[in-house]
Amino acid sequence: MTVRVRGIYATALTHLLTEADVDVVQASGPIQDRFDADFPTEHAAVAVETTSDEQGVGVVGDPDQVGAVLDRLTDLGRDTLWWDAPLPEGAVYAGEVTETLGSGAVVDCGDGEGFLPYSNATDRVDTGDRVRVQVVDSSAPWTDGRPVLSTTLAVRGELLTLTRGRSNTTAAGGPAMLDVIDADPREGWGISWEPASDDADFGALADALTAANERAEALDAALDDAAPAAEAAPTKYAGAGRTVWVWFGRESRFALDEQRRAVTATMAGHHRVKAGDRAASAAVDYVEALCSDPGADDETDFPFAVTARQFGPRAGGSLALGHGKPDGRLITLGKGDVESVDSDGTVTIEREMTGGGTYDALGTPKESGDVARTTVKEGRWWYPTTYRGSDGTSKGTYVNVCTPVEIFPDVARYVDLHVDVVKYPDGTVERVDDDELAAAVEAGDVPEDLASRARAVAKAVESALN
Predict the structure, then answer these.
(1) Which residue from 51, 68, 159, 277 could staple onto 208, CB 3.0 to 4.6 Å apart?
(2) What pLDDT score was predicted for residue 400?
(3) Looking at the chain, which residues constitute the CATH 2.40.380.10 domain(s)?
């Protein structure tokens, strides 16, 4: 198994994988220095890359090897959650254009929607058109983005790219490189060399071309006898591997700290801070360069007060609730005004509500002027929201049970675990939505050990409120 790792989790994941006898390849310069090792520059069967919001990683590549990597990642903590991408990178579809926007078109591929930038289309596209497209970049389920598509078919890699219907690149190292490695791209496909190929030996380049040719052959076989897009859409023509999105919760991030600490100086909450604010990365690097042992075995040493004071949230500002769902979606609840930020990681926010409908599970009417007061605490598995009318009368309390809360500068992030506890205005306490948690376990969205923890937390909250 060969794996390429990039992003803020690279050191930790490189240690985790190498300890499991996985071959990490194409390591960056800092990683090679940190491990005092030479990692080969060769074809990677799997790529692991941090998501743009730094909440997790995408794992892309050979299905069996992606599964093996995923097994190691899910061992990090019970709040490591993952989802297969409905439109995996490299897959080819016959899709129908359902909407045209300013910069591109929305395409229904059957397994999901993708976005085709006009710059990625060889011809003009309009609503109702049926086109053959390939997934260039997938999209994590907790983001708002759609997978990016292209009408150009290619086998894309870190060392080289094969493009169907194009000639070999004439750039330096193009055709001449093929003479050196004594190999040719598949007929009908043109080769271009990626920058990483400069550091690869000839054997690695030959192996990468062989792997790319095999994928190109599989695409040719799937497409040669396929019905045209005008007749087939929406349908999947061919897959090209597996794409999995992995979200790290708070416990998992601290487990990643331990992996990183085995290699180099790592402060408590290293990944927790970096995932919350990009501006904090330089500060974390400075602390770790300055101090020989900034880490701690106990995660309670995470410096929340200092982090909040430097980067937020702060009293007088605002904070949203990033309400993750076990199926991977993210629902951002309305921003509230930050009333207080305590050194123990407790943040209280208030939101003024608009009228209409009733409060979930409580059944009490939602009226304009109502105030929702939410108290979140870093690392806690639940948080309460109390609702009061404009005259101060209670409209009940709703307690969400969730993965350990992480309070970033602009958002408190967690994944809701369905089961909740409510306290009605008359003082009656009830536990709700156990059936939804059971369904999520059955669907594979919530691991059983995480569900057991959620039920135990709900039981404790229920007892405390009675």
Answers:
(1) 159
(2) 97
(3) 311-465
